[in-house]
């Protein structure tokens, strides 16, 4: 039966955190797994909802497959787990493996955006209204896991995305562990103690400077306390995270957007976002954080959603000048 379905090629992540998901097709269910079926009462686009969890096309903890599935390898409070999620016929079919399987399945609706409330958003600009209509399956995910979003967000501080994705890929593959279940080449990120024991030369080899590695080391020492932030209101969660030196507004926002599904956690301090928001809403280039926040003020409480819709609209300023050339501290 599987041969009757022609898979579409998987697209890489685009601005706004959308991952192209091929059309679903039946696949044989591997043994030794737990399953759950859940039907959301609204349209669901897995690529839009789960796309922000992917850290580049080579992310060893995230994969999409031609059968229409999204695979995630996670370190849950119960232990490592692998989750496969497929949307088919209006229903979400999930399968999980490992010690964290039950934990992942219990939180499947939250992962797919059940805790989100798009009805709280009112578009006050034509661009956002049009994009919202074109993306009815957009929901904000809530993973309930802090460290899996915090660490790659720290790696993305002040470097290009390609540099950060490379560092995450190398460190997880080298120091993580193979994900439970049948997914080849998926890895669970290292546990906190393992992160703490990574030698300085391995950080250097991955292109991570001492400032970012130091922030990660400080965070993993109090990983349990930081994971508690996933159960807090987003404002409290941000305050908890920013107690760690090296974690500021940019990193905390990028984290709670995913771990807490925070609709108002707009990212400040980003190299590109203010210019994109300013251009989309005014047609002018060169906006800074202050102007971006002023433009997003009508969406207070939903500023992150507004920014995601702007990114998904594709209405971004044309590039001028050469791309930034990344450095390579590993070659020093």
Task: Provide keyphrases for this structure.
332 residues; alpha+beta; Endonuclease III, domain 1; five-stranded antiparallel beta sheet; disordered N terminus
Quick overview:
It is built from 15 helices and seven strands. The protein is an alpha+beta fold.
CATH architecture of one domain: Orthogonal Bundle
Structural class: alpha+beta
Strand content: 5-15%
User: What Rg is obtained from the alpha carbons, in whole angstroms?
Assistant: 19 Å
CATH topology of one domain: Endonuclease III, domain 1
Organism: Streptomyces ficellus
Protein name: DNA-3-methyladenine glycosylase 2 family protein
Keywords: DNA damage, DNA repair
GO molecular function, one term: DNA-3-methyladenine glycosylase activity
Could you characterize what this model shows?
The protein is globular, with a radius of gyration of 19 Å. The model is unreliable at 1-14 and 24-31 (pLDDT under 50). The protein has a 5-stranded antiparallel β-sheet with strand order 1-5-4-3-2. A two-stranded antiparallel sheet has the order 6-7. The chain contains 15 helices and 7 strands. With 332 residues, the protein is α+β, with helices and mostly antiparallel strands. 47% of the residues are buried. It has helices spanning 46-50, 101-106, 108-111, 126-134, 147-155, 161-175, 192-196, 200-205, 210-221, 223-227, 234-241, 249-259, 273-282, 289-296, 303-313, and strands spanning 34-38, 62-64, 69-76, 79-88, 91-97, 177-178, 187-188. It has a domain at 147-231: Hypothetical protein, domain 2 (Endonuclease III, domain 1). It is 37% helix and 11% strand. Helix 4 (126-134) packs across helix 15 and helix 5 runs antiparallel to helix 12 (249-259).
């Amino acid at each position: 039966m599987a041969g009757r379905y022609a898979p579409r090629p998987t697209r890489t992540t685009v601005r706004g955190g959308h991952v192209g998901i091929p059309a679903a097709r039946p696949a044989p269910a591997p043994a030794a797994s737990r399953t759950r079926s859940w039907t959301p009462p609204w349209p669901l686009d897995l690529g839009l909802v789960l796309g922000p969890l992917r850290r580049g096309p080579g992310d060893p903890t995230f994969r999409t497959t031609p059968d229409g599935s999204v695979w995630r390898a996670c370190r849950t409070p119960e232990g490592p787990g692998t989750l496969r999620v497929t949307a088919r016929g209006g229903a979400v079919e999930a399968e999980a493996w490992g010690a964290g399987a039950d934990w992942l399945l219990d939180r499947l609706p939250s992962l797919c955006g059940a805790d989100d409330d798009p009805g709280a958003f009112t578009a006050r600009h034509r661009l956002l209204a049009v994009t919202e209509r074109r993306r009815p399956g957009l929901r904000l995910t809530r993973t309930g896991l802090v460290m899996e979003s915090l660490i790659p967000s720290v790696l993305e501080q002040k470097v290009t995305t390609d540099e950060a994705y490379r560092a995450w890929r190398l460190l997880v593959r080298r120091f993580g562990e193979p994900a439970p279940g049948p997914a080849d080449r998926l890895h669970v990120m290292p546990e906190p103690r393992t992160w703490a024991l990574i030698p300085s030369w391995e950080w250097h080899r991955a292109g991570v400077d001492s400032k970012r590695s130091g922030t990660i080391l400080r965070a993993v020492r109090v990983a349990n306390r930081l994971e508690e932030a996933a159960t807090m209101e987003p404002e409290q969660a941000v305050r908890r995270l920013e107690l760690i030196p090296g974690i500021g507004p940019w990193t905390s926002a990028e984290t709670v957007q995913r771990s807490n599904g925070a609709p108002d956690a707009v990212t400040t301090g980003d190299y590109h976002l203010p210019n994109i928001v300013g251009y989309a809403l005014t047609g002018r280039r060169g906006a800074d954080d202050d102007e971006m926040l002023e433009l997003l003020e009508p969406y207070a409480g939903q500023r992150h959603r507004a920014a995601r819709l702007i990114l998904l609209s594709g209405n971004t300023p044309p590039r001028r000048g050469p791309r930034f050339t990344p450095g390579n501290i590993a070659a020093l």
